[in-house]
Amino acid sequence: MKDTVLVSMSENKRSKLIRFLGYSIPILLVVYVLSIGPAVALISDSNGVLTHPEYVSQLESFYAPLGYVVDSNDSLEYLAGQYIAFWLQRF
User: Fold this and answer.
1) Which one has a higher pLDDT value, 89 or 5?
2) Rounded to an integer, what distance in angstroms lies between the CA atom of residue 2 and that of residue 60?
3) What is the DSSP secondary-structure string of 20-65?
4) Which residues contact 67 (CB under 8 A, 6 or more apart)?
5) What are the sequence ranges of the domains in the chain?
6) Do 87 and 38 touch, CB atoms closer than 8 A?
7) Does residue 9 or residue 27 have the better pLDDT?
8) 1-5, 14-18, 34-38, 74-78: lowest mean pLDDT where?
9) Is the pTM of this model over 0.85?
10) What does the alpha-carbon distance between residue 80 and residue 89 come to, in Å, rounded to a whole number?
C-alpha cells in the first residue's frame, strides 16, 4: 500500500512537470520571437538609425537562430521587417 502511494505521488509530480513544460516552452518561444521588435527599437531611433551600436553584436548573437529561419523564407523576411518597422515607429 505504501509503495502504491509513493508511485502515484511520483507520477503526479512527473505529470505536473510535463504539463508545465508543455505550456512554458511554447510560451517562451513566442516571447522570444516577439521580443525582437522591441529589442531593435530600443537600440535604434524611429528612422532605423542605430543609437546604441555597442549592443548590436549581442543582439545579433541572441537572435541568430531567428535570423536563420527568417532569412530562409521571403514571406517571413517581409513579415519580420514589417514587425520591426512597427516597433521602430512606436519608440
Assistant:
1) 89
2) 54
3) HHHHHHHHHHHHHHHTHHHHHHHHB-TTS-BS-GGGHHHHHHHTHH
4) 60
5) 1-34, 35-91
6) yes
7) 27
8) 1-5
9) no
10) 14
